[in-house]
UniProtKB/TrEMBL annotation:
The lineage of its organism: Eukaryota, Metazoa, Chordata, Craniata, Vertebrata. This is Monocyte to macrophage differentiation factor. Keywords: Membrane, Transmembrane, Transmembrane helix. It holds the Pfam family HlyIII. The chain crosses the membrane at residues 90-106, 118-134, 143-160, 195-216. Belongs to the ADIPOR family. It is found in: Membrane. It is a multi-pass membrane protein. The keyword Membrane applies. The keyword NADP does not apply. GO terms for cellular component: membrane. Its main location: membrane.
Length: 226
């Protein structure tokens, strides 16, 4: 019982059905520090990748990080906190769309699959509207939308004639999915949100590596560096 009480001080109670989770001071600090892990990587990757499609992914990922930083850095007033939490959930949809954008735009797709190039952004816009109207009201529905958007483009990507890099893309997607367990475990697992950040950083690193190796670099450049 004493061990349980010591463990509990690092974790707040489970969030209500229609409200957001409020981290303890320990969890809040961990949430801030874990952003540094992905920030270092993004700066290194951004300095070496310069195509329009990859720039889109970088910009959306940077926007996601800025919203996350603002959410954890600004004074936790009720209005400001709610606003940034909504923005955080909205940007996740565009984060998913941007992860697929390089593959959908830089690889040849069939006539029935090419629509996914713009449809992922339409899904992201629809998710944004949903969060604006029903934020924190139907959490299971919101999770379902995230997973649907994450898996739907995968059906198109796997049908491409050139499948180089899809193994890394799938590995990154699996890491994201494993991270969802922690994303939904606030109030159950201590530092769950910080752990979720680490899963996101790792999955993004795998995806960035695949883009750099298979989409950005030419086969000649790759052989030169072997």
């Amino acid at each position: 019982m004493r061990f349980k009480n010591r463990f509990q001080r690092f974790m707040n109670h489970r969030a209500p059905a229609n409200g957001r989770y409020k981290p303890t001071c320990y969890e809040h600090a961990a949430n801030c520090y874990t952003h540094a892990v992905s920030d270092v990587f993004k700066k290194k990757f951004s300095s070496g990748t310069h195509t329009h499609t990859t720039d889109i992914e970088i910009c959306v990922h940077v926007e996601y990080k800025l919203v996350q930083k603002a959410k954890f850095s600004f004074p936790p007033t009720r209005t400001v906190e709610h606003c940034f939490h909504m923005c955080d959930r909205m940007v996740i949809y565009f984060f998913i769309a941007a992860s697929y954008a390089p593959w959908l735009n830089l690889r040849e797709l069939g006539p029935l699959a090419s629509h996914m190039r713009w449809f992922i952004w339409l899904m992201a816009a629809g998710g944004t509207i949903y969060v604006f109207l029903y934020h924190e009201k139907y959490k299971v529905v919101e999770l379902f939308f995230y997973l649907t958007m994450g898996f739907s483009p995968a059906l198109v990507v796997t049908s491409m004639n050139n499948t180089d890099g899809l193994h890394e893309l799938a590995c990154g997607g699996l890491i994201y999915c494993l991270g969802v367990v922690f994303f939904k475990s606030d109030g159950i697992i201590p530092f769950a949100h910080a752990i979720w950040h680490l899963f996101v950083a790792t999955a993004a690193a795998v995806h960035y590596y695949a883009i750099w190796k298979y989409l950005y670099r030419s086969p000649t450049d790759f052989m030169r560096h072997l």
